[in-house]
Amino acid sequence: MIPGPTPVPERVLQALGSHPIGHRSQEFQDLVHSTTQKLKWLHQTKNDVITITGSGSAAMEAGIINTLSRGDKVICGENGKFGQRWVKVARAFGLDVIEINAKWGEPLDPESIKEVLENDKEKEIKAVILTHSETSTGVINDLKTISKYIRNHKVALSIIDCVTSIGACNVPADEWELDIVASGSQKGYMIPPGLSFVSVSEKAWEASERSNLPKFYLDLKYYKKSLHNNSNPYTPAVNLVFALEESLKMMQEEGLENIFIRHEKHKLAVSNAVKALNLKLFANSQSLSPSITAIELSQMSAETFRKIIRQKYDILLAGGQDNLKDKIFRVGHLGYINDRNIINAITAIGLTLIEEKIISDTELGKALQIAQSYLK
Ligand SMILES: Cc1ncc(COP(=O)(O)O)c(C=O)c1O
């Protein structure tokens, strides 16, 4: 129950274990065609969706280096570890970063982004860069509202990390006119780590013509050219593409709306159950991520708590990162997760709290009742 790598369905593992085929074969090109169509469905877009062999950070970096130029002014939203990563990537490439921060656990304030964009009369801001679902804190940022403000600016591109929101909640790239959407395979896609995905709007392709940042492996124009022949510029992780085809088929069988509903109900079950266990949510309760719930633990070391749950119940929960280490633990409910996984996790958390004399049996009963009411 960590937010990635997430569990991989049996069907997908079977596909992964097939013998590799030549990446220049017709058979593989047919596969690329098929996965690309399905990726567009998942991303709700007519834009190109490019598959890169590399982790989610490769897609994030590709988004920046293909659309921006040295010294460009950009806004980076930062309210957690992955927002911080954006700031680091942007600075590494010599961009002029205006940071808009929120306290970790709080969402970014769309109005403060709006204000900076509206005051940019000379249209110097070339991009607004942020994380949709901030995995480190369990917060979802209000991308719908923020994307509207970015559109109103006219010049700035939206460059968004949707690593833990694609395949978990609604991210309609075309409706919200998102320019760059970056994500990674070991999350909602239900396949192992190793592939990342980046969707690129027409406006972002236009910007790529002006971009002067150094790039080679992640130069998306080569991917675009290849994609139009259902091919890749370099040897892709062929077996992960087999797995992707199978997982996307599974997602289509379930249906986008049902996938979102499942994540929403798991989020509600976990967050309300842990409150009934007298624990406090780390994230603002109005902005809970559908993929992960971060929980404060003041009564004992969160790392010891996680270790007990791992050893005794064989459930791996995620820890806190950086200054949150040992203070919070996180329950991932992203990807191939069912109601049983949720009930097991809540029970293991509750039983461990009882054994540590932090709560009594009554609270666990109540918590399970509450969880069940959301799992119907
Ligand atoms: C929100 C978010 N962004 C970016 C990343 C980085 O992805 P990767 O580790 O695949 O490079 C992660 C991974 O956990 C994430 O959760």
Describe the structure.
There is one protein chain. The chain is an alpha/beta fold. It has helices spanning 10-16, 26-43, 56-65, 81-92, 110-119, 143-153, 202-210, 220-227, 238-254, 256-276, 302-313, 339-355, 361-374, and strands at residues 48-53, 73-78, 96-101, 125-131, 133-134, 139-140, 157-161, 180-184, 195-200, 280-281, 292-296, 318-319, 328-332. The strands form three sheets. Strands 1-9-8-7-4-2-3 form a seven-stranded mixed beta sheet, sandwiched between helices. A four-stranded antiparallel beta sheet has the order 10-11-13-12. Strand 5 and strand 6 form a beta hairpin. The longest helix is centred in the C-terminal third of the chain and has 21 residues, at 256-276. 49% of the residues are buried. Bound molecules: pyridoxal-5'-phosphate (PLP). Residues 3-4, 55-57, 82, 131, 133, 135, 161, 163-164, 184 line the site of pyridoxal-5'-phosphate (PLP).
Q: What distinguishing features does this structure have?
A:
376 residues, alpha/beta, seven-stranded mixed beta sheet, four-stranded antiparallel beta sheet, 13 helices, 44% helix, 16% strand, globular, binds pyridoxal-5'-phosphate
Question: How would the blueprint of this fold be written?
Answer:
Elements: H1 10-16, H2 26-43, E1 48-53, H3 56-65, E2 73-78, H4 81-92, E3 96-101, H5 110-119, E4 125-131, E5 133-134, E6 139-140, H6 143-153, E7 157-161, E8 180-184, E9 195-200, H7 202-210, H8 220-227, H9 238-254, H10 256-276, E10 280-281, E11 292-296, H11 302-313, E12 318-319, E13 328-332, H12 339-355, H13 361-374
Parallel strand pairs: 2-3, 2-4, 4-7, 7-8
Antiparallel strand pairs: 1-9, 5-6, 8-9, 10-11, 11-13, 12-13
Bound molecules: pyridoxal-5'-phosphate (PLP).
